[in-house]
Amino acid sequence: MAATKDPRPCSIADTLALVGEKYSLLVLREVCLGNGRFDQLVRNTGAPRDVLATRLRRLVDAGVLTKRVYSERPQRFEYRATPAGLELEPVLMTLKEWGDRHLRGEDDRPMVIEHDCGNELVPVVTCRACGGEVRHEELTAHPQSPGWTVSGPTAA
Fold it and tell me: Domain of 77: which CATH number?
């Protein structure tokens, strides 16, 4: 029945291939918090040094982070988010909010993020066109990949 053995073409899958591993997201969290030095990243993420070095290299190569020298002797680097990396910050905030609500609870949150309006940030996904809050029941998917429908691949 299936026209292809390949999985559905998907930007979510492509993104997860780059940043879907735990330490990649934790590196982004730390860099967004202003902690971009290798030793800070090791301490604050708990990543083994070799794993962290590999993740940093991939994020730099993909244009999510930049690397700059902050010490010549010994040579040490600091990592910062690129504009593409900063675009992932709302994803991190949404993941944090979900975890606070479904895994922890109001009295067990390890961090609160304050918006510059002075209130606690509670991220909400909105439609850019109308400004409305996005709700599952209001969404309709339109597959753009040839040979695919919402339910899966078309017949051969």
Answer: 1.10.10.10
